[in-house]
Amino acid sequence: MIKQSMLVVLAHPDDESFPLGGTLAKYAALGVQITLICATKGEAGIPSLPQEKVALLRERELRAAAAVLGLSEVRFLGWKDGELAKVDESIAIQQLLPILREIHPQVVITFGPDGISGHPDHIAVHHWTAAAFDEADLPAKLYYIAPSEATMQGCGVIPTTEITGGPTVGIDIGDYRVTKVQAAQCHASQNPPFPGDPETEAEQVACHEYFVLARPIVQAISTDDLFNIWVKQEVSHERA
Q: Counting CB atoms within 10 angstroms of each CB, which of 19, 121, 162, 214 has the fewest?
């Protein structure tokens, strides 16, 4: 039996915990091997401190959060926080290609074209990952983290394609909200939104996290699992 694997490509430490920590914790608990690729070490995240010190601090925070979530591995691409839009895209793609071929994931997760918040670093990582995914030509699924408005829709309500931009999967993280809070709290330097007792704070965390299926390109799907999808209509060969 082939072990399920997931590759998550993000820009900064904390990107893994705040928007999708519950999903990562859930799949890790199910035995999925999850590799996190972080493009930077978040050097610009504490303007009052030298970037070298910030990088060390935030790397420690990320590794602590990864341990809480149960991730298998964390790798850094080595780019500077706040400067990803200036990076030669072809170089970044060539960094990601051998990782994709080495890990051979069934699921890849990254930012969508909007970068969730419009952050230039997030948008750059989106372009790199989508291009590398297409070039690697693996039999895998590529998901984008759904716009942040989606998480405000309430428990169990899947946002429409008008909100997310494509067929959307809602992952029930009800049993992993405490873990998500604990992971977020590892990023203490970034003033996480849930600073109190994890059990209490978890009650405020939305019980679903949302993802848009970007590849394969389909009109509609039926699933509550990132690995297993049922395609409702013909697959399109167009790429966005």
A: 162
